[in-house]
Write a structure and sequence with these properties.
The chain has eleven helices and no strands. The chain is mainly α and 278 residues long. It has one domain. Helix 3 packs across helix 7, helix 4 crosses helix 6 and helix 5 runs antiparallel to helix 11. The longest helix has 28 residues. The protein is globular and about 45 Å long. The model has no long low-confidence stretch (mean pLDDT 84).
Length: 278
């Protein structure tokens, strides 16, 4: 991976952690999540006139990504209800990192060098350390763990769908715009019993609008990286979002910053150059 890809993946990670933390900190995470997805879809419709539609070959992956993303969002929101952000988010991202490596090997034949594999293992270790520390401090129920595991598995699945689909799409921008629309439609349908789909937008648009912009920027950045760079290292770099999430949890959500978390942050930082040259 070249430096531009590394920088894009890390910026995607920062944005991803930020908007997820804002959703968790809101009074009604489900409505805010729905509102930001719907607003994001509205924002990208005009952009489709610029990008055009992705290649027909990518539409099967778009459908699969939409399904897995919807299931993941539902599981993630449920996990947020049962556990702290500093626990749920790192565990979900660590599971995704660990699952993407074998999935990429099976589906794409992607083989990593020694440095790349070492970098992924170091990031996985840092995220596992974060998860262990958060569980030790906050505790975790069996019910919360089930939803966390579901969200982690779903995250890995939609990462692979997107990585496959964007390479067939002929345009990461067109692919990202269409998936954002299909995700919003799916989420609106999922929330149909809670009332009209635009009710959350009307109630939360001031918060949801910047979150929609951050979410879209994060997604398009990582799609652009996946369109040409190795999947697993790029996904691992993006999943350093858990490290940024811990910093957000400490300084914004007032969760504890322990020595163990400091060690995890340093571990993740050490992994970046390994992924760069792996």
């Amino acid at each position: 991976m070249d430096l531009t890809d590394v920088a894009a993946a890390l910026l995607s990670a920062v944005l991803h952690a930020g908007w997820n933390a804002a959703v968790k900190a809101s009074r009604n995470p489900t409505q805010v999540m729905t509102a930001q997805m719907l607003l994001g879809a509205v924002l990208v419709v005009p952009a489709l006139f610029w990008s055009g539609l992705p290649s027909l070959a990518s539409f099967g992956w778009i459908a699969a990504s939409t399904l897995m993303n919807t299931l993941t969002v539902v599981a993630l929101l449920r996990a947020y209800e049962l556990g702290g952000f500093g626990l749920v988010y790192p565990v979900v991202r660590s599971l995704a990192v660990l699952l993407v490596v074998p999935m990429a090997a099976v589906l794409t034949g992607e083989q990593l060098g020694t440095a790349g594999m070492a970098g992924i293992l170091v990031i996985s270790l840092s995220l596992i350390v974060l998860a262990w520390d958060a569980a030790r401090v906050q505790g975790v129920t069996t019910q919360a763990l089930r939803w966390i595991l579901a969200a982690g598995g779903g995250t890995a699945a939609y990462i692979m769908c997107d990585a496959q689909g964007v390479r067939l799409s002929e345009s990461p921008w067109a692919y990202g715009f269409v998936v954002s629309i299909t995700n919003a439609v799916a989420m609106g349908w999922r929330q149909r019993r809670a009332g009209p789909p635009w009710a959350p937008v009307a109630a939360h648009w001031k918060l949801a609008l910047p979150l929609a912009l951050a979410s879209m920027a994060s997604y398009l950045l990582i799609l652009w990286v996946w369109s040409h760079a190795p999947i697993a290292p790029a996904a691992a770099l993006r999943d350093t979002s858990a490290i940024f999430a811990v910093l957000i949890a400490v300084f914004w959500l007032n969760e504890p910053f322990t020595r163990t978390r400091i060690a995890a942050v340093l571990l993740a930082a050490a992994a970046v150059p390994l992924l760069r040259f792996g």
